User: Fold this.
Amino acid sequence: MLAYTIRRLVLAIPTLIFIAFVIFMLLELAPGDPMANMPLSIPPEVREQMRQALGLGQPWYIRFGLWLYQFFVVEPQYWIDAAFGTNFADGAQRIISFQSRSPVFEIIAERVPQTLWVVGMSYIVGVIIALPIGIAGAYWQYSWFDQLGTFISMVGFSVPTFFTGVLLIVIFAVNLGWFPSIYNTTLVVEDWESFLAQLRQMAMPVFVLALYNAAQISRYMRASMLDNLGQDYVRTARAKGMNERIVVLKHVLRNSMIPVITVIALGVPQVFGGAIITEQVFKVNGLGQLLIIAIQGSDIPMVLTLTFIFAVLIVAFNLIADILYGVFDPRIRYD
Amino acid sequence: MTDRTDPHERAEPPPSPAVPAGGAPDGGEIAEAAGSAAPGQSSTSLWRDVWVQFREHKGAVIGLAFLIFITLFVIAGPWIWQVDPADLDIRNKDVRPIYTWLWDREADVMWSRPLGTDNLGRDILANLMQGGRVSMAVGWVAMLLALILGTLIGVLAGYFRALDGLLMRFTDLMLALPLLPLLLVMMLLFRDQLRAAFGPEQGIFVLIVTAIGITSWMHTARIVRGDILALKEREYVLAARSIGTPSRRMITRHLLPNVLSPIMVSATLGLATAIITESALSFLGLGFPSDYPTWGKILFDSVERMERFPERVIWPGLCISLTVLAVNYIGDGLRDALDPRIRGR
Assistant:
């Protein structure tokens, strides 16, 4: 297993570099000019100097190599410096955003908490809702509960999140006035009042994403339970007079969880990507909104870094899912 | 129905078409199995059996009926409801839908504008029809493109051993790309070039369709490859090869017809995703130009005024959601109907 993990990790490096290259070349073709928003009164030679200052004068392979070096060498040095008070980085050039002229990773670090709060919470809520629905739906297959659960999960992944979000805003924010429609990032949780306010503003975005995630996971859970409920070992367990609760919740559930856990792991990076839309609907200024702003402003270092982080998440969680599969299912041997 | 995930088939979207482990059996077996299950029917063809089983699935039948209805609505609707969707009637702007009158007698309603007008006085019903045409067209074309690409790559990888490793690594790589951010980047990048080449509307149409198509073929390719690999080991393939069938005939005559059912199931999924992706792009403001309505675009334009005019977001949203729901139900029914283990049970 260790050898397999190491092999996969080594294989991930060329994959990631290739992905970075694809994204970089796509952005290289971009007609968008980061200078477009500057006043037209700037003379052409000054404009050219400003382009040079942004590092746009060099050929693409030098800029790509520089970005790779900054991402994999300089940035980790800064993190270590910040954590232990050392001075490895020694003032080396970091990845700088074209728009704000501050280091890309500082801006990302500012945005991560909002995204993690809303998206992370919604994923946890989604999983917590999905598992019981899947289990009960499979156990009482074709009962009214199962019919309802299947229908809701079908609706959950058919209705796009931007429509669920807008619908919830119309109902709960505009007509009933229960929840605010805009996520206020400046809110600091210090007492009970502000905690309640935080809960209220998180309620709708979390619900929208949770419904979407729960819809997908509960289908897997149900299918996997159904697969296992018909197996011979279940009949054996019942035949020896075992309590039905133990049969279902211990024998069947534990075996059914194997594929579901990998599905849950695989869903994590997609949640970050899919949250772009939900963040836009509820005006949560998280990573997704940052990406949209950066794309519109031709902020190449920001777009490149953010997209690459998403790619790293996908590759990492694919690996985690495969390893988890091997850990939980002794029949799977990778070596 | 089982949705199985194994490490080789990971990153599958939830309504994953479960591929029978042995691949799709050939037509003869199916006809036999179904024939024995339904005695009394003198002649049964494969597609007739599939249709009989499909009708058993209530959701799928309703879904099919709705899809036909909405298709007729967007195609034939503009001939019956002859209002120009782009017509600016500024004097009759912000008209509420006719049913608002039931609870609000003061509301500004008009019989000639049954679903009301927007802030520039454009008729919403006509816009829904026009927007639906574009949304459905994008969905169908993008799905077909993804399907052709996916089938081609899947068949090549499954049939020619030399290409297998390379093509499947490429597929894995594509699956590791963050697709929505890349789609957004692509929309921004090639917008101007394609506009210049094909004109403002066709250019964006080509761009959206291509972008969605080349980012969503991977699952089809994997499924097709898996099935082709299994089918290749069958005796009838060996028999065909032994009489000297060339590769091209082998693929078109013997292999493709037998992978048709998983392809059809992934077609329904592809249609649903393509419609959602197009409306998501429009919703993020990176889709079609603003005077060119699609369902997602109408929804996006109405969000600012949804507090006073909630109907303007609800109608296009309902159109998208119900269409996607219908297509997903059809996919579900089709999957059951095409699965010989379920049919005739």
Remarks:
- Chain B has a mean pLDDT of 79.
